[in-house]
Amino acid sequence: MGTPCHFALFELQPDFRIDQQELAARYRELARAVHPDRFADAGEREQRQALERSAALNEAYQVLRSAPRRARYLLALDGHELPLEATVQDPQFLLQQMHWREELEDLSDSLDLAGVATFKQRLKQAQQQLEDQFAACWNDNAQREQAERLVRRMQFLDKLSHEVRELEERLDD
């Protein structure tokens, strides 16, 4: 038997738009039920199964709570596996990436915390826009190429967002 669908694990319908609070509440509930400590007195096999269930639950939760990972997962469920580090054959977006990178580098060099906050807001808006576009087209086979392009863009912005948080932490210290 294969692993259950991440959405099924949380009793959710496969969809890009999910209620994050409902997901978190369901995760906490399920995590308590399968926590390996609850099986401390059980046999070795049951302990191993509890550990496996707990690991599978954690993996499913990490995928579903991240928009780019959830988007990739939905495409994979539909048989469209995307390479993890896909190059973006998208000259307009490549140019945008270069501008963002340069701007972030300048903010880092100038130690501009206010500028970083503004940059972070613009980045959040761009991420929200991509998520809205993906939500509108992911389950339409005619728009599969566009959905894949959007996932790649989402992955880049997610990575950039992590770098912005790291920069904020460095500037805060």
Automatic annotation (TrEMBL):
GO MF, one example: ATPase activator activity
Keyword Metal-binding in the entry? The reply is no
The signal peptide stretch is: none
Q: Which domain of life is it from?
A: Bacteria
Which keywords label this protein? Chaperone
Quaternary structure and interacting proteins, as annotated: Interacts with HscA and stimulates its ATPase activity.
Q: Which PANTHER family match?
A: IRON-SULFUR CLUSTER CO-CHAPERONE PROTEIN HSCB
The entry's family comment says:
Belongs to the HscB family.
* Job of this protein: Co-chaperone involved in the maturation of iron-sulfur cluster-containing proteins. Seems to help targeting proteins to be folded toward HscA.
Q: By what name is this protein known? A: Co-chaperone protein HscB homolog
Organism of origin is: Pseudomonas flexibilis
